[in-house]
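Whether sequence alone determines local backbone shape is best considered at the level of individual chains. The sequence in question and its structure tokens are set out directly beneath this paragraph.

===
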Amino acid sequence: MIAGRISRMSALRPLAQRHFSQERKVVVVGAAGGIGQPLSLLMKLNQHVTELALYDIAPITPGVACDISHVDTPARVKGYSGDQMGAALTGADVVIVPAGVPRKPGMSRDDLFSINAGIVANIATEFSKRCPNACLLIISNPVNSTVPICATIMKKNGISRQKLMGVTTLDVCRANTFVAESQHWNVNDVAVTVVGGHAGTTILPLLSQVRGATFTQEQKEALTKRIMFGGDEVVNAKAGGGSATLSMALAGAKFADLVIRGLNGEKGIKACAFVESTVGPAPFFASPIELGPKGIEQVNGIGIIDAFETTKLNEMTKDLNDQIKKGIEFAEKFVPK
């Protein structure tokens, strides 16, 4: 009975390791929301995490922290709300930001920007004061604009952007899932590289690089479109009830786990993320990266792509650059509250 119980508990902790290599404080900013709550739970299950601080403007956040603190893993949990963001951020190693409003049916990325830009800018300002050496992982949409907002504010404050990353892991999760279904493969054996941005047509899965896969042109076009607009699929299926929350929480937790393992010195940690670099056709570009103690150790190019992907890459470039520019211009004029 005891052995069986341990086995079942292990299955509930896919992100956990059985020992600590270093003490790590993780902060979730926006912890009371639809992404924030399951993301916080998943980070409590990650046993690389020794301290978990949950912040949200909502007054229920200490209650969310109390609830999660009862989960039987070693991480210490504390909740913060209202004007306590600075206290939550102090001493952080990794800050994950799902704060802001979710997308609803009929909402454009511009609609999201008008609400979330100021929220993210205030977070980046406080981050710059309280934990400038931490990794900052941005989930808040539109990522193509919110990451440049953070980068601009960090630059104003003289902070390196080597640890700033936009979380595009959900695009990879969707690509892996849909390709596995298409090829009748085990999804655990699939690893699709997804580049570009994190919104609609700026998302580009490199299906030509999936080893052993066979796609007709029709299949490739359909799969690419589904991966690009997977977020719309969820928004429409929820019929006004929200956007992707559970899958995004898992994707965020998976990426945060990789970042922490890199910080801890584990070798060979690779992922895709929306980062500042010179490897793509835009100053911020979702690329294959290598993670380590410094955060982003290396940004890699996209490699050889086929004619279909080249066309899609060329088509996205103007929109992606416009969205980046919009974020930078907002941040340049932003005055912290």
In short: The chain is about 45% helix and 15% strand. The CA atoms of residues 132 and 159 lie 7 Å apart.
